[in-house]
Amino acid sequence: MVALPGGDAGLDSGVRFTPIPVSGESGSPETLRWNPRAIRRLLSDFHPALVQIEEPPGSPAGMATAAAARRSKIPYVLFSWESLSRKRGFLENRRYRSTLAHAAGVIGGNRLARDLLAREAPGAHAAVLPQTGLSPAAVLPRAVSGTGLRIAFVGRLVPERGAEMLLRACAQLLGAWTLTVVGTGPEQEPLEALAERLGLASRIRWAGGIPLADLGGHWGAFDCLVVPSQQTPAWVERSSPMLLQAMAHGVAPIVSSTGALPELVGNAGIVVPDTEALALALQELLAEPARAHALGQRARQRVLEEFVDAAVAQRTLAFWEVVLAAGQYSSGSATRRPSRAER
């Protein structure tokens, strides 16, 4: 059963969707106040074995749901994408600590998010799990290129996306290559000017913005995708649906060593710390086209094993089973029995 803020009740493939009355500004979903009485009534009627809360732990909705679960003596786990530590106001911080203090489990969308949650809930089971899965994608025919290595960059053209790093790496390449830049943003003119100064303009195609949902038909035109994101004090790459989509289509991934990117590609991609390493990785793929193909196949296999709907559902269910098997719950808190390994 899935409880949603407002909307209509329904049933889809055995999953029951139940609307909860909310108040507040719909444009700021994290501040919406869910009706506590409706949450308690729903848990009382449905009485699940476990509740997973996907509202931020410091939000009114997250705390209201956690309080209702504790009152009904139902264990709960928390999911969060928040990947950078930040200051919270007094009330938000109080809600955050209270909600995590009684959690039976915590789930981060990436390792950074998991570690932030586990810091406040050291007794809870912790895991990294995708929030949603992908539908398996068919591999598009990949014709032999007469223009050498076909490199792609997809993303908004802002400094933290690292397009400048990619251009400077491409300027060091020897041999035939092309770069397609998909995306727009305030850095486009400076990047085009940089490409002119580096003598790269004839090798780069600026494709403009393409919606993620429409990218599927374009992946066959690329040998590798570069995601050179750069972390800032206020931003980090917490996930990348675009990267996973490219991997699912057999495109070789090259990513920077920031945020969640290394854990997304695992051993099925190339992780680079700086411009020099990126240039070297591209040069190696340019010199060995078969390696790009093999890397793309490995990337696709990783997505099929870890990130498609069925895999995500299986991993999530396994985590729930571990939480339920290990915990002993009282009305006010959740205490975890040590695992066999911990004993």
Name its key features:
343 residues; alpha/beta; six-stranded parallel β-sheet; 17 strands; 37% helix; elongated; disordered C terminus
Short description:
With 343 residues, this protein is α/β, with parallel strands linked by helices. 37% of the residues lie in helices and 20% in strands.
Could you characterize the architecture of this molecule?
This protein has a 6-stranded parallel beta sheet, with helices on both faces. It has a 4-stranded parallel beta sheet with strand order 6-7-8-9, with helices on both faces. It has 343 residues and is α/β, with parallel strands linked by helices. The chain is elongated and about 65 Å long. Helices cover 37% and strands 20% of the residues. The protein contains 11 helices and 17 strands. The longest helix has 18 residues, at 289-306.
Principal-axis shape:
elongated
Beta-strand fraction estimate: 15-25%
Helix content: 25-40%
Overall structural class, as computed from helix and strand content, comes to alpha/beta
* Secondary-structure element series: EEEEEHEHEHEHEEHEHEEHEHEHHHEE
Main β-sheet, spatial strand arrangement: 12-11-10-13-14-15
- The overall pLDDT, averaged over residues, is 91
Radius of gyration: 23 Å
* N/C terminus separation: 35 Å
Largest sheet: 6 strands, parallel
SS elements, strand count: 17
Tally of helical runs: 11
Low-confidence parts:
328-343
